[in-house]
């Protein structure tokens, strides 16, 4: 069965995943909207080198388990300005006493390492309001909103779910997103992670999300950050282009504007904007001139990252099988 993907100037008939399209890329943008804007889709490339179009529509389905159906929900009761504009009001944040019925002090205490999470949702020197305020300023400086940054993560999560429902988890090697190749690997945790907020959300899986840094982008960084060491440059490019996160984070970002604090699982808004090409590297640097190395923080240390060290081997295997380097796919 085929769905009609309606674009602004023409109509294209494409079969949706799990059907494949062969090795010729579909002539549609990714992401795109169809069915008169009611549905969302992304283009993916499978491990076999074929193209697929995956429905990734964000919905408010109240029947989903563990609070995960409400992908368009914003906590308007606690953050009315966030719900209205996509960004927090600092005045509201400074006056914040409770979030989802939990006091600010309780959330800060539960978010420390060793409490709800061994890694913590923030470090010992942070509190929930200061983390929300700092990231709200980062997002505003990028000229983006929290819902705009949550959207690509929801698309990744929904693409993973689509593969799982079809019994083909891991079939898609990477997604085409705003003209970039975004690689995604996912896995299940041992048990689940409870939410920091009283929202019933639980995390049961993790994502590794990254894209290659182009030679021109590396040259740009070398020009702008001449005084940092080679080790610091590797750290900067890695933290700019890699994210370790869970399905909990797009909900946190959408509902509360929360990306986690200075922890292993922090989902930095700058990295989201770079990986999914919401902002070019030049635009990001212009927003934070000379500050990216400091803002992006320390080298990722999450224990789930070692599998990503095999990326070079996976890339070589792809190239040997299909005769093309996946980084060259347009």
How would you sum up this structure, described in words?
- The chain is an alpha+beta fold and 330 residues long.
- The chain has helices spanning 80-85, 90-94, 104-110, 128-142, 146-165, 215-224, 230-241, 248-256, 269-275, 281-287, 292-295, 311-322; strands spanning 2-6, 11-15, 32-34, 39-46, 51-55, 98-99, 102-103, 172-177, 180-194, 202-210, 242-246.
- Helix content is 35%, strand content 20%.
- Strands 3, 4, 5, 8, 9, 10 and 11 form a 7-stranded antiparallel beta sheet that branches.
- Helix 5 runs antiparallel to helix 8.
- The longest helix has 20 residues, at 146-165.
- The protein is globular and about 55 Å long.
- The protein starts with a strand and ends in an 8-residue tail after the last helix.
- Mean pLDDT is 86; it is low at 303-315 and 326-330.
Topology (SSEs and partners):
Blueprint: E1 2-6, E2 11-15, E3 32-34, E4 39-46, E5 51-55, H1 80-85, H2 90-94, E6 98-99, E7 102-103, H3 104-110, H4 128-142, H5 146-165, E8 172-177, E9 180-194, E10 202-210, H6 215-224, H7 230-241, E11 242-246, H8 248-256, H9 269-275, H10 281-287, H11 292-295, H12 311-322
Helix pairs in contact: 5-8
